Description:
By secondary structure, the protein is α/β, with parallel strands linked by helices. It contains 14 helices and ten strands. The strands form four sheets. Strands 2-1-3-4 form a four-stranded parallel beta sheet. A two-stranded antiparallel ribbon has the order 5-6. It has a two-stranded antiparallel ribbon with strand order 7-8. Helix 8 runs antiparallel to helix 11 (371-377). The longest helix is centred in the middle third of the chain and has 36 residues, at 262-297. It is flat and about 90 Å long.
Amino acid sequence: xxxxxxxxxxxxxxxxxxxxxxxxxxxxxxxxxxxxxxxxxxxxxxxxxxxxxxxxxxxxxxxxxxxxxxxxxxxxxxxxxxxxxxxxxxxxxxxxxxxxxxxxxxxxxxxxxxxxxxxxxxxxxxxxxxxxxxxxxxxxxxxxxxxxxxxxxxxxxxxxxxxxxxxxxxxxxxxxxxxxxxxxxxxxxxxxxxxxxxxxxxxxxxxxxxxxxxxxxxxxxxxxxxxxxxxxxxxxxxxxxxxxxxxxxxxxxxxxxxxxxxxxxxxxxxxxxxxxxxxxxxxxxxxxxxxxxxxxxxxxxxxxxxxxxxxxxxxxxxxxxxxxxxxxxxxxxxxxxxxxxxxxxxxxxxxxxxxxxxxxxxxxxxxxxxxxxxxxxxxxxxxxxxxxxxxxxxxxxxxxxxxxxxxxxxxxxxxxxxxxxxxxxxxxxxxxxxxxxxxxxxxxxxxxxxxxxxxxxxxxxx
Length: 462
């Protein structure tokens, strides 16, 4: 029986996909050469090979991370079309970027677009055919895998119901046993039945009986039958996601409230580096006039540095152009009663601590520009939740702490959803949590575009 992690099948699938990409390239080249006046292949062979090899490399990387080659894996068919589209979008985008930075630009853009589309059609068609064959094969009555379910409670009943309602999974329950069954009875059932795997599913608490799963799993081991234990831990949490990881040589489940997508995190970091580099360039251009303005309107340093709380409680030093008088922190205690926000945040319109230069800079958010340095250092991101001070975090309620579970940002959903119009810290936190729960690279781009609109509109800036 083939295992769902067969390395040979994965390698064979990846090799076949590479063959399809090669066929798609020559198909596209032939088609484009017939439609457009085209340079012979040999004339720019190096550029064509860079396009073919570069795109293939990116495809293989993203296809591996999206499990497109693991056709034997149980959940391979789930969201297959969407996963395939994402792989081609990422690989196609990076492939186009690679061609753009090449020293010569003799690649016909029609060829590249046709090549990517052709590759997508070929590979997607093959994946769909494999999926249909897989479903048909697993649904065949003589190919189903006989399993035994032992457990109690809602989770066990749900597993049985899902298996019965999904014949394409290729599973067939031949026996259901309660936790009250003795080890001896359990062993007799295994001895007298054709069972390929035993599913154990128990509630987190089994009242009224002295039950331990250990002797049952030990019996499976001694009799050479695979045992699969369903941990009912995900039912403990309301919205956190659970993932399996092999860690420190042990099987573990990790609970997290932020979707850990390595591909998008890489894109986010690249996005931050590119954006911060451009921002630092603007910072150098604007530094002389802003530094002069700050020095002429108040005494003190040009930059304001303050300890803030970053991802998961990490402290870091945030940089800004100084927009307040040097005794602003002392005067803040005197102005607490005039705080126009409720909760663990201080906001005040016509704040007397703000200098003339500060009012001008805050209108266009120019005081925030040194934070591009913090983004480049990796302490912050272009988009995220605003980093609080340690004093503010001390006032947090328990559910507020989830807003600092991600990397803080220069701008965020709160800033583009009303900016200083929102005075309730609970509402600010809800917007931050909405961003955390729904995060994607596209949401970041949308927020940055909205931020530029808000800044130029000078909407409620103070």
